[in-house]
Design brief:
- This protein has three helices and two strands; from the N terminus they run αββαα.
- With 94 residues, it is of the alpha+beta class.
- The chain has one domain.
- The chain has a two-stranded antiparallel ribbon.
- The chain is globular and about 50 Å long.
- The chain starts with 13 loop residues before the first helix and ends in a 7-residue tail after the last helix.
């Protein structure tokens, strides 16, 4: 049986990770369903990227403000995107 640590983290049993093909870096969705916590692996990196972009847009500057211009993508976001694609078996630059 898994336990929740002081930061709310749990370790999924190896058998479950293997059965669901959850590897290090796999994005997962966690939600409540009928009083139970459900962990669902994300399978499409494009869906993950779209959700990330939507969340950034929702939390960015207000309607009348424009975000600062950037010459290059944020390196942290680039690393995260690349890790998501590697976890999904996609190494392309799509």
């Amino acid at each position: 049986m898994s336990r929740v640590d002081s930061k709310g983290r749990i370790v999924l049993p190896k058998e479950v990770r293997e059965r669901l093909d959850i590897t290090p870096g796999t994005e997962v969705e966690v939600h409540e369903e009928n009083g139970k916590a459900v962990v669902k692996p994300e399978v499409d990196p494009d869906d993950i990227l779209e959700r990330m972009e939507r969340l950034v847009a929702e939390t960015s500057a207000g309607e009348n403000e424009s975000p600062p211009a950037r010459d290059a993508p944020d390196p942290v976001a680039e690393k995260h995107r690349d890790a998501v694609r590697r976890g999904a078996g996609r190494d392309d630059d799509a």
